[in-house]
Amino acid sequence: MGNEAQPADATQSVDFQQVQQTEQFRELRRRHRSFVFPMAVAFLLWYFGYVLLADYAVGFMSIKLWGNINVGLVLGLLQFATTFGITAWYVSYSNRKLDPIAAGIRGEIEGHEFDSRGRVVGAGQAAGTGQAAKGAQR
Amino acid sequence: MSGMAVSSAAPMVNVAALKDTTLLNMGIFALFVLVTMVIVFRASRNNKTAADYYAAGRSFTGSQNGTAIAGDYLSAASFLGITGAIAINGYDGFLYSIGFLVAWLVALLLVAELLRNTGKFTMADVLSFRLRQRPVRIAAALSTLAVCFFYLLAQMAGAGSLISLLLGISDWGGQALVIIVVGALMIMYVLIGGMKGTTWVQIIKAVLLICGAAVMTLWVLSIYGFNLSNLLGSAAEAANNPNILNPGLQYGKSETSKLDFMSLGLALVLGTAALPHVLMRFYTVPTAKEARKSVVWSIWLIGLFYLFTLVLGYGAAALVGADTIKAAPGGVNSAAPLLAFHLGGPLLLGFISAVAFATILAVVAGLTITAAASFAHDIYANVIAKGKADAGTEVKVARRTVVVIGVLAILGGIFANGQNVAFLVALAFAVAASANLPTIVYSLFWRKFTTQGAVWSMYGGLASAIILIALSPVVSGAKTSMIQGANFAIFPLSNPGIVSIPLAFFLGWLGTVLDKRGEDPAKQAEMEVRSLTGVGAEKAVEH
Predict the structure, then answer these.
(1) Closest chain A residue to B237, measured at CA
(2) Exposed/middle/buried for B128, CB within 10 Å: 0-12, 13-18, 19+?
(3) Predicted complex: ipTM over 0.85
(4) Exposed site from B93, B194, B388, B511, fewest CB < 10 Å?
């Protein structure tokens, strides 16, 4: 190798609008948004619902369930539980549904499949020795 | 019922005895400084490039960075403030802590990875990615500096009252001297160690803080036979008020205070993921996946820590007693140190005090490097030098900025010492949530978002939060106001978020739909593809 031109320039000639239109990328974006948006709305509603109860339903929050443990404490600890739960859920969702497809698109871009000057792989003309070398590696 | 017998039989903590431990406290703190200094010197040997100085060469792992985030986030206000709030106000202190944790889901789901994939060193890198550089960078840098300044001032002023409590230094001159020492140490850490040194200070401090809190928590629980209900019962009995277990003692006093808490909750939950010193930490890891791992680690550590403070707060209420806490120097903030003294005598108190100091040091170091990076990278390199400055000059400017900020923080800390500036932390969150978060979210997720929208939202959010706080009871018109004897408090709440956050979101939308100049769709496509796939993201520095 010894070719200083290749790492930094790997994305310079990429036509990102073309990538954005691919079915693969749209699927990645759909999967990402269909998880994070509803989840964000849900935990915000749950948190502010809890704060509203603590503010305006003191009687309800003060009902004792076991010994000195009241509804307010249980709901508060449930906030911790749901925060930990959503975290773990998101990590497993990302590992299964997001990371593989993102890695696939990344590989294709870095392999110059979306170059604005046409695909370098197999084209073999004056697109730069660094890119050609990279293409040849694939 | 054995728990109650313990609490009534236990001798009350003798406040005067605290002063006898001053030398021990200082000794343990000096040891912390010595160990971290050695580590900072060793870590700094590889500081060559801008990526080394600002982003620690992007070489930390997710778990290391997550621990450092916890170290950065769990300030003295969290440890001493929340423990004290639970000891005095019971449930409402716990309610307060939950907002600080839940907020991390915003960072995890919407911000951390996308930001790591599209930025280089600062928040402004992301916000100006596909918009016009100059106006957006200036606005983002100003709001970064504002947040850092408010947070820093609160920490430095807090150092003064902490000193009176932990070191038994009550005269103004002595406290000023300690503030100078804290500031000078912080300047050394950041100047020499850069982000690497700062990160190690935060990691060591987080480990000490969480371990110390864990030991105290287990100790308190063992006194009550690991039965939470017994502990709560004992706390309620010692306070002579069963309502300490119910919401409302602090925030439920009036309709205004209820609304005020909603406003605070909004700022906490939406502000955390937009705090510039938190955002900058995501650049210290090599990939977006490590950024995700960082947030996961910090969520577990921070969550665990707030569960500890629940036990510690009620433990202090039961074992030390609210009256003793209120009468001690430092007031509410003394609950955790007094509990440490009650449990483990001078040695545990010395340890906890030293950790509290280390906490201030680690937090101010993180804020200072963030502010310096924002000035040098956003304002100097990209606006003043128009992107023509080389990295060496930029780092030199950053280092000089560190000294300037350090000196300002020391002066601010000395003059704010004794003033009621506790509202500054809440203000920092409110500014972050109003000025930063709407633009972060819009620029990552809304294709049509434009420069005008960003600029309106950032300046509108920043200005409205600061103006509303200036017109609120924390500044004038109440017994606890900063300025006594004046009353221009026409805004009734102490937290501006409930107005300024929706306003900033609205202005971002309005500025965009009224903008006649569209933005480059190719840049939008590039940002979207990069943010989700990580292609072309900044790589770790090889040494």
Answers:
(1) A68
(2) buried
(3) yes
(4) B388
